[in-house]
Design goal:
The complex is a heterodimer of chains A (396) and B (280).
Chain A (H helix, E strand, L loop, with lengths): L2 H26 L6 E8 L10 E4 L2 E10 L8 E8 L11 E6 L6 E5 L14 E5 L4 H37 L3 H8 L1 H37 L1 H10 L4 H4 L14 E6 H5 L14 H9 L4 E8 L5 H22 L7 E8 L11 E7 L14 H7 L3 H4 L8
Parallel strand pairs in A: 1-7, 2-6, 5-7, 9-10
Antiparallel strand pairs in A: 1-4, 2-3, 3-4, 5-6, 8-11, 9-11
Chain B lengths: L2 H13 L3 H36 L5 H13 L2 H25 L6 H39 L2 H7 L4 H39 L4 H8 L5 H9 L1 H17 L5 H33 L2
Helix pairs in contact in B: 2-7, 3-7, 4-5, 4-7, 5-7, 5-8, 5-9, 5-10, 5-11, 7-10, 10-11
Classes of the chains: A alpha/beta (396), B mainly alpha (280).
Chain lengths: 396, 280
């Protein structure tokens, strides 16, 4: 390699390094990009210097060109910055400039927030709003304020603790009512005695309630009140559901007897049997033939209050069951009642409802009675086998 | 001897210092005079070189030879010195920065240390050692063998032919050598760091030059032209005023290096302050 060539290579190489450095720094200072200038003003720039970075949305997008002190005491410090042209679409008139610090002790830089969509564009040399910088000194003042108020709070807490201490000491030494409660054995034995006598009282009260029930029973048999219960058809409301089931068992009945309520009971809301003889056929069947299970199903017509009609059907079913059990010889555990309440068009007589005696063959499953709140509703929607057959009941 | 005579002698002795102390004063005065004389001669020499350098004919061929001598041939040495400095700063800076929890400032610390301080001064000292001694010894041996007189007899201005070309070569080459030293220092600094803790070169450059300005880069680099002037001027001056044979040559070479390095560091004090004031 000749001397000149070697020298040339050296010069070219080192100048390339120079160019590289110039371009690296130049790109940081936005010297080789198209820029525009904006201005903002602060009361205090907190040490921001010319050449500091400008970040838009956290992206380095420009540099502080110069900082000028005001000429009059009332004015503000003006910061002139060069911004990359690409930020022109983001920075609007309502963008806000603020002075931030990288880390706790790092360089200071200017941060500009995005503008709102509707705002007008900024032009070369425009002023944008600013936010006063957060300075360490301010932060320390605030922190010391917080510290002193927390000191007061801690003082209060320790006072409260001291009070608590004296209170618990008093309790421990048996002073005051709480102290007595905790420390006095007599109080405990008193309490024990009271509990014992309370037990006795409860036993006595239970005996009193039993007596009262017996008295009430006697009263029902009294001639003054007997008429009412007789008219009502049952003495105790628990009788109504004693043999009631919720729904009919699965499977078809072996035999069904159907009666009109009008025939059996006469009046619309009566539950005294008038024409008992017509039940004898069913009773005879029960007495003479082996069967698994029988149900007295009673429904009423569409007239009247639903709740009352439901009660009426239950009472009627009970009355019929009672008649059958009393007059015919069969196992009374095998017969149940089912009051359906109001049923639409169950029989030809929509007025007063119908009565069915359904007899199921041997081996039929007895449906478990479930006293649920929906019992009434489910009972009301059950189709009787007669209905399922389209009203054509299998008359014997 | 009478008392009166003794008194008179004592008076005379106090009036005139002893021969020993007078020799001390005269030698001190001689040193001071030599010091100023040296500066005066340097000034005259600098003036003659400057005048010779700006008047034609220009010694282009000799200039290229000297540029090669000072520039390209110093490059390996300067690159090696710069690389070593990069590694040293990398090791030192990481240790001290991590003690302050400011590890993220490492790239910036390395870039600023190398570009602003260590690159220029190390280049100056290395070149003053290599080139200053070479020029001093070369010119001194030409002087003692009366070659310079022979050149002058050929109607060639030795200031133009010998001194101006060398000084100009130093002035032009030192900034370029500094750039090479900076580049090597940054590369090896990054390399040393990434061996310990992975750091991409791109990120290193990005965060190292964060907030860097031309004032942080160009003045410290081009101030080394002043170093070049000092090295070239002192080495040529020491070489061309040599007296005596081989001993004088050795003295000239030593003085060139010592004085050039000393003035270079002293000049740096002034230059740093000057740059801080003029290029804030």
């Amino acid at each position: 390699m000749s001397r000149v060539a070697r020298l040339g290579a050296f010069i070219v190489a080192t100048l390339a390094i120079l160019a590289g450095g110039v371009f690296i720094i130049g790109s940081k200072a936005y010297l080789f990009r198209s820029t525009y200038q904006l201005r903002t003003q602060f009361d205090n720039v907190a040490g921001l210097a010319a050449g500091a970075g400008v970040q838009v949305g956290g992206v380095h997008s420009g540099t502080v060109h110069s900082i000028a002190l005001p000429h009059r005491p009332g004015d503000k410090v003006i910061v002139l910055m060069d911004l990359d042209s690409s930020t022109h679409e983001i920075i609007k008139h309502d963008s806000v400039a603020s002075i931030e610090t990288e880390g706790l002790l790092g360089n200071q830089y200017l941060a500009i927030s995005f503008g709102s969509a509707g705002q007008s564009d900024v032009r070369e040399g425009d002023f944008i709003q600013s936010e006063p910088p957060l300075q360490m000194a301010d932060l320390l003042t605030k922190a010391s304020g917080i510290l002193s108020s927390s000191q007061v709070a801690i003082g209060n807490v320790s006072q409260a603790t001291a009070h608590l201490n004296s209170v618990s000491a008093k309790i421990d030494s048996g002073q005051g009512s709480v102290g007595a409660l905790i420390n006095d054995k007599e109080l405990y034995s008193n309490l024990q005695r009271s509990t014992g006598s309370l037990d006795q009282t409860i036993v006595q009260a239970q005996a009193g309630v039993t007596d009262f029930r017996e008295n009430m029973e006697a009263l029902k048999q009294n001639f003054l009140l007997k008429g009412y219960f007789k008219k009502r058809g049952y003495e105790d409301s628990s009788e109504l559901s004693a043999h009631a089931i919720d729904r009919l068992p699965q499977g078809a009945p072996a035999k069904a007897f159907t009666y009109l309520a009008k025939q059996l009971f006469g009046g619309h809301d009566s539950f005294k049997l008038q024409n008992q003889k017509s039940l004898n056929e069913g009773g005879d069947y029960l007495a003479k033939n082996p069967f698994g299970f029988a149900v007295v199903v009673v429904s009423s017509g569409l007239e009247g209050d639903s709740q009352k009609e439901l009660e009426l059907t239950e009472v009627r079913a009970m009355v019929i069951r009672k008649y059958l059990v009393e007059h015919f010889a069969f196992d009374d555990g095998q017969i149940s009642t089912l009051g359906l309440g109001k049923q639409s068009a169950a029989t030809s007589d929509a007025d007063s409802g119908s009565i069915q005696l359904l007899i199921f063959p041997v081996g039929s499953e007895v449906p478990a009675s479930e006293p649920t709140p929906e019992g009434v509703a489910s009972r009301a929607t059950i189709e009787t086998p007669a209905q399922a057959k389209g009203g054509g009941s299998a008359k014997p | 001897m009478s008392n009166l005579a003794q008194t008179e002698i004592a008076a005379v002795r106090t009036q005139f210092p002893s021969p020993r102390s007078s020799a001390l004063v005269s030698s001190a005065a001689k040193v001071v005079a030599e010091f100023f004389e040296w500066f005066g001669n340097l000034g005259i020499f600098a003036w003659q070189v400057a005048r010779a350098a700006v008047t034609p004919p220009f010694e282009w061929h000799e200039l290229v030879r000297q540029l090669d001598e000072v520039g390209s041939k110093s490059l390996p040495l300067v690159a090696l010195a710069g690389s070593a400095i990069g590694v040293v700063i990398s090791l030192e800076a990481r240790y001290s920065l991590s003690r302050f929890g400011a590890k993220s400032l490492f790239p910036a610390t390395l870039v600023y240390s190398v570009i602003q301080v260590m690159g220029p001064i190390i280049t100056g000292l290395v070149v003053s050692g290599r080139v200053g001694a070479g020029i001093g010894a070369e010119l001194a041996s030409m002087k003692v063998t009366e070659q310079i007189d022979a050149i002058e007899a050929c109607a060639i201005n030795p200031y133009r032919f010998l001194a101006a070309t060398r000084i100009l070569a130093c002035i032009l080459m030192l900034p370029l050598l500094t750039l090479a030293a900076d580049a090597c220092g940054l590369l090896t600094g990054w390399f040393a760091q990434s061996l310990v803790e992975p750091l991409s070169f791109h990120q290193f450059i990005e965060s190292g030059f964060q907030g860097a300005t031309f004032n942080a880069f160009l003045p410290p680099t081009f101030k080394t032209a002043v170093y070049g002037l000092i090295i070239g001027l002192i080495a040529c001056f020491q070489g061309m005023r040599t007296r005596g044979g081989a001993e004088g040559v050795g003295r000239a070479a030593t003085n060139s290096v010592v004085l050039a390095s000393l003035f270079l560091i002293l000049a740096d004090v002034v230059l740093v302050k000057f740059i801080l004031v003029v290029f804030p």
